[in-house]
Every structure is written in C-alpha cells, then in structure tokens.
C-alpha cells in the first residue's frame, strides 16, 4: 500500500475556508412551545392579535370616568355611585354613566363607559356602602392597560435567528402560539477508528494494546455544546472495507461526519483513501500543532472532517476549526467573549514553525494577578485538557514565550474558574484526602522531582515532596507527615517475601515507581545501604532485580499490576495495600513535606492548606 506523505500543509486560514465551503445545515423543523427553549427561529413571527386583547385594569380599585374625578383631593373627594363589580376572567355586564363607578379587580376588563381607574387605597366607602369617595383626580388612561399596549396585532414579535429564551416563550404564549419553525440542528455522525478501541463499560485487554474510546464521547459532548446533534456510530477498525461501510452509513444519515484517527501518514491509515474514492478530499494536513493530520472533504452528500486520533489533538482541532462551523450551521452566535489576559509563569520554547494550540492552566499569585502555565503531557494524554483552562495560540513565527510575557488565553468556556490552589508533586493518598476539604484546588501528580523543579520555576502555590531532599529550596514548609512504604504482595503474601533481599536473590517479578517519584528515591537509598552492608555495588543490586526499571507513575499503579497477576511484588505504601486488600512487607518510613512558594504564603488557599495540615498532623505525624 502506498504511503501517504504530508508535503504541502495547509495554513489554518485555508483549513477554515475549506470547512466553510461545506454545507452543514440541518434544515427546518417545527417544535412545540415546550421544546422551544434554546432553539433558533427560522422565520419571523408576527402578532396575530393584540396583547392584551382588551382594555384591562392594572390594579384593584374602581373603574370610572376620569372627568368625574377632576378637582377631587383629600379635602374634597368626589362621590360616585357604585353600580357593580367586575372580576378578572369575566365579561362586564354593566355600562357606566356620569357619576358612577364599578369595583374592579386587577386584570379585569374595563366596562363600557370607563376610561380610567383609581387604586383602592385612594378611596373610601361612605357609611351606607353605596357610594365611593375618590380622594384623588385621575386622567383618562390612568392605571389602564389598553388593548395592544403590550403587543399590537401585526407587530413584529420575534425575528429569524432569535435563540428562544424563557422570556420569548412567555411572549409566544401570550400570542397563543404553540408551535414554531426552527432551524434543525446539524446532525453530526461520530466515528472513532482503530482496532485498539473499546467502548467504556466493556472489558479492556491492556496486553493487546486495547484502550478505551475517549474521542467518541468527548467529541460528542463538544458537538452538543456547539448546538449540533451528535450520533455515535460503532468504532471502525483499520480495514478499509469496514471503515468505508460505517462512513457511508454515517454520511447517508448525517449532515456532517467526524472521524478521529487513521488520518496520519501511515501505511495502515486508509481513511483518506476512502474519502478520495467515495467523495472529494479538499484538504489533508494543516500547519498546526497539535492537529497536523486533519482531513476536510465531502462524502456523498455529507460534509466530512477527519480529526487526529490522539484525544488532545482531536479536541483542539475540533474546538478551533469545527465547533465554529457547527454553531453557524445551527444558527447560534459565537459564545460571549471568554478570554483572560495574564503573564507567562515560566519560559516556554517552541521552534517547529507551525501555529501551536497550547493548552494552559491559570493560577493567581498573592496579589490576584493571573499567571499562565503550559499543561501539556503530549497529544496522547487525555488529562492535558482536563487539567487545562484554555488555549494560547502561538504563531508559527514565535520561537519562545518568556516568563512574564503577556499572553491572552481563550478559555474553554466562559464559566471557567481558575483553581484557588495549584499544587504539584508526589502522589499521596493523605494529601488527596485533605484537598477534598478545600474549595476548587488543582493538584498535578507529576512526582517529587518535577514538582520541586516547578516550584523553583515559581509556577505552583505548593509542591509536595517525599523522601530525602537533595538540595536546599527557597520554600516554606507548611506541613510534614510520615508514611510507611515497602513491598506490596498478593493477599496473604503467597511468595513469602520478607524484604528487599528477596528481590535481589529470588526470581520475583517487581514493579517500581518512576524515577521522578519520592518512593523510588527512598528505595534506591535503601538499596545503597544494603549494598554497603554487603560491600557490593548498588548498581549491580538494582540490575539484579527483575523489573526494577519498570516504573509506573501513580502510587496505586504498581499494586494493580500485582492484582492483575503481572507482578509478584510492587513498590508502594502501607495505606495502598490496606485499601486494596493486598499483602505488605514494611521497609521504612518516609517523610512527606508540603512546601509553599515563598511568594504565595499570604494567599488564602495556601493558609487554608497549612491550617488543614496543622489540624491533621501538628508539626509532624505518621500517615
């Protein structure tokens, strides 16, 4: 199979123009008033009747002829004969003559012969009860809403393109309209491709390289948010005939087909061939990162856009290029301005000559100024977007952004709130529990060493470090606790593991933590001590352990390898073993420190975390 090469990449502007050339509109439909909220009117609606359709009283009181009250005041009230009463919802059965009044309720029809009404609080009833004393004068029209005063028959009520609000529904109800013509949302078929994909809820076999289908659900949510109607199709494998069948089915049923994956320049990626053979390929490859392998074209009568397979790339391309087109097809306006200005918390280099869509997070310093920091674990990491607040567009001519440089962030939504506290560092179950009691914290489990590095760069409010510190830091310790670490085994310790020596001397499969972890540092220190006792090389001891170099990031991940039967022993915490009902062989205790950025110690959230640590542990405690 011929390999597809990316040669002449389209510019972002050319990609937008290609998508704009496609027809995504979903047509028209009629919906009931109950289903009208948020829909977009397809035609102008005119009032077919007056609202109100009659002259009505605005208050409780007396309907009368205004001229009968001229000159009346508190000292010299006008005396009028009460000849009846009218309540809301009933037809008046009386017509007034000179010197008469009618008791009337709010909203009731004004009787013939009346042109004004007086509120009850400006009147008195004489002793006999047949006359009313009016203690004020009124002019014609006072306290009366005349027919058509709200909406007059023939008047323009709502125009095409109006996104119907609850207020509009009230107006339509008043006009007696129970069904309206609206723009049908574009239907968007979503097809994730790849033999490795499994739908959430099904069993995944990691040994076969299977992963859960992330894109179908995140893209569907984005489609709905942009005003489209998402339709999920079964994921397609990498075989051309099956992929073609599913894409053709989606094209027959939808206005737009979005696929993800199988768009890169690989011999096994065939989706662009399907479009070339069954439709029209307008564009393949865009000069943007992430998102270079994007496709734009037509498939039968449907528009088609192929998104990259990695979740971050797929969503960034969708938000930047596809979501605006869906909103326009649905008749929805661009969302209200959702941008934030701030300064870069640290330098960020980029020298690839493509426009970069950089996911970023927001944090405020002690003075309430907004700092911007990159959040990018690579386009294959699903958490990059979950931990980010928005995007900074970096032009292709920009090689780097300096610390302190002003940038503008396009937020993922207008209601994004920056976290009150940004913490980084060691993954620790005790800390996770304490963070639950804080308002809107964000904690990035990057490991002890990267956490300390970011603290030195001045990005986070707090870094959490486990194990010995290899150098002094410009930071304030706001809490410390100890945690017991050791070797995690299967329940009951069937291999009868007794200590670190067993890893060296016996045929045991071991799972370690990553080199950035504080637990890994403590393990290496313990092995160095053991090597000294044996007059041996610490490196030789490490190399004798089967799996020492297999490091997993989170504190539970190695233990789950033991549960899955993929390892005999894992590095971990006593708390983890207890929670997962596994065996545990203690090795040592390890200090964990919460270190505050010296420039943020006055920040309220930092003080709250320090108080929580003090309440939990005092100055130091066992965890």
Task: Give the helix tally.
Answer: 15
Query: Main β-sheet, in a few words?
Result: 8 strands, mixed
Percentage of residues in strands: 25-35%
The stretches of 5 or more residues where confidence is low (pLDDT under 50) are 1-6
| Beta strands, count | 36
| End-to-end distance | 58 Å
Average pLDDT rating: 88
> Residue share in helices?
10-25%
Q: Give, in spatial order, the strands making up the sheet with the most strands.
A: 30-29-31-36-32-35-33-34
Radius of gyration: 36 Å
Question: What is the general shape?
Answer: elongated
Helix/strand class:
alpha/beta
Description:
GO terms for molecular function: molybdopterin molybdotransferase activity. Pathway: Cofactor biosynthesis; molybdopterin biosynthesis. Keywords: Molybdenum cofactor biosynthesis. Residues 189-328 form the MoaB/Mog domain. α3 runs parallel beside α6 and α4 (240-253) crosses α5 (271-278). This protein has 15 helices and 36 strands. The protein starts with 11 loop residues before the first helix and ends in a 6-residue tail after the last helix. By secondary structure, the protein is an alpha/beta fold. The strands form nine sheets. Strands 30-29-31-36-32-35-33-34 form an eight-stranded mixed sheet. A six-stranded mixed sheet has the order 7-4-6-5-9-8, with no helix packed on it. A six-stranded mixed sheet has the order 16-13-17-21-20-18, sandwiched between helices. It is elongated.
Q: Quick gist of this model?
A:
By secondary structure, the chain is α/β, with parallel strands linked by helices.
């Amino acid at each position: 199979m011929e390999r597809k090469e990316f040669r002449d990449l389209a510019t972002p502007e050319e990609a937008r123009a290609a998508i704009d050339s496609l027809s995504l509109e979903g047509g028209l439909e009629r919906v009931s008033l109950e289903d009208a909220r948020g829909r977009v009117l397809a035609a102008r609606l005119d009032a077919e009747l007056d609202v109100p359709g009659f002259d009505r009283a605005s208050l409780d009181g007396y309907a009368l002829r205004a001229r009968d009250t001229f000159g009346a005041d508190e000292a010299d009230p006008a005396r009028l004969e009460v000849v009846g009463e009218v309540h809301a919802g009933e037809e008046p059965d009386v017509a007034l003559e000179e010197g008469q009044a009618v008791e009337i309720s709010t909203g009731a029809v004004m009787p013939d012969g009346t042109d004004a009404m007086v509120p009850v609080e400006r009147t008195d009833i004489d002793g006999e009860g047949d006359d009313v004393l009016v203690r004020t004068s009124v002019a014609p029209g006072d306290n009366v809403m005349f027919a058509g005063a709200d909406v007059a028959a023939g008047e323009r009520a709502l125009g095409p393109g109006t996104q119907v609000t609850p207020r509009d529904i009230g107006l339509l109800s008043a006009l007696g309209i129970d069904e309206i013509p609206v723009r049908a949302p574009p239907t968007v078929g979503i097809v994730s491709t790849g033999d490795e994909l499994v739908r959430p809820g099904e069993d995944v076999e990691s040994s076969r390289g299977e992963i859960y289908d992330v894109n179908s659900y995140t893209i569907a949510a984005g489609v709905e948010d942009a005003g489209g109607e998402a339709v999920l199709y079964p994921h397609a494998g990498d075989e051309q005939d099956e992929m073609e069948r599913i894409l053709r089915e989606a094209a027959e049923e939808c206005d737009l087909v979005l696929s993800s994956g199988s768009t890169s320049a690989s011999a096994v990626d065939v989706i662009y061939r399907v479009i070339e053979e069954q439709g029209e390929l307008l564009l393949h490859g865009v000069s943007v990162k992430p998102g270079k392998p994007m496709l734009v074209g037509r498939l039968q009568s449907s528009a088609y856009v192929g998104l990259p397979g990695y979740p971050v790339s797929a969503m960034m391309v969708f938000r930047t290029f596809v979501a605006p087109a869906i909103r326009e097809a649905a008749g929805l306006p661009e969302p209200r301005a959702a941008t934030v200005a701030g300064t870069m918390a640290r330098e960020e280099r980029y020298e690839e000559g493509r426009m970069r869509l950089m996911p970023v997070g927001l944090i405020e310093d002690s003075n309430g100024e907004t700092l911007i920091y990159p959040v990018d674990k690579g386009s294959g990491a699903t958490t990059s977007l979950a931990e980010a607040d928005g995007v900074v567009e970096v032009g292709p001519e920009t090689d780097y952004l300096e610390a302190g440089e002003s940038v503008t962030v396009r937020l993922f939504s207008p209601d994004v709130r920056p976290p009150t506290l940004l913490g980084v560092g060691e993954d620790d179950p005790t800390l996770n529990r304490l963070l639950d009691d804080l308002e809107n914290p964000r904690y990035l489990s990057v490991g002890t060493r990267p956490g300390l590095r970011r603290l030195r760069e001045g990005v986070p409010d707090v870094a959490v470090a486990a194990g010995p510190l290899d150098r002094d830091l410009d930071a304030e310790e706001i809490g410390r606790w100890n945690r017991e670490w050791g070797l995690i085994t299967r329940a009951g310790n069937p291999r009868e593991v007794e200590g670190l020596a067993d890893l060296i001397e016996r045929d045991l499969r071991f799972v370690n933590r990553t080199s950035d972890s504080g637990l890994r540092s403590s393990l290496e220190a313990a092995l160095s001590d053991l090597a000294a006792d044996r007059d041996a090389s610490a490196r030789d001891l490490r190399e004798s352990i089967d799996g020492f170099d297999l490091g997993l990031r989170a504190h539970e991940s190695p233990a789950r390898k033991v549960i899955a039967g993929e390892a005999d022993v894992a590095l971990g915490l006593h708390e983890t073993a207890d929670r997962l009902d596994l065996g545990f062989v203690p090795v040592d205790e390890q200090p964990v420190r919460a270190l505050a950025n010296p420039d943020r110690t006055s920040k309220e959230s930092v003080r709250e975390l320090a108080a929580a640590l003090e309440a939990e542990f005092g100055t130091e405690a066992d965890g």
